[in-house]
Amino acid sequence: VTVSAGGPIDYDADFVYDYHTLRVGGLVFAGVVVFLSVLLLAGNKIFNCGKSKVKRTDVIAPPAGRIV
Q1: pLDDT tens, residue by residue, 18-45
Q2: Cα Rg for the chain, rounded, in angstroms?
Q3: How far apart are CA 53 and CA 60, in angstroms?
Q4: Which of 2, 13, 36, 52 pairs with 60 at a CA distance of 20 to 30 A?
């Protein structure tokens, strides 16, 4: 940092943006978000793959047409 008499001081003169790391980090973050959202949306089908559904037979409906 060079300081001239009476001039403004530029504290960011030595700062350089690292666009490659920023781009890679953004792509990794986006990939993780997409993977987790697909897992969330299709999770029920993935985790129950091959398992048969349990059918409830203990609920008996009243006969139709009878008014009590």
Answers
A1: 999 999 999 999 999 999 999 988 877 7
A2: 32
A3: 19
A4: 52
| Residues belonging to the chain | 68
Q: Are 26 and 20 in contact (CB under 8 A)?
A: no
6: left (phi over 0), alpha (psi -120 to 50) or beta: left
- Give the whole-angstrom CA distance, residue 10 versus residue 26: 29
Who's near 54: CB < 8 A, 6+ residues apart? none
47 class by beta-carbon count within 10 Å (0-12 exposed, 13-18 middle, 19+ buried): exposed
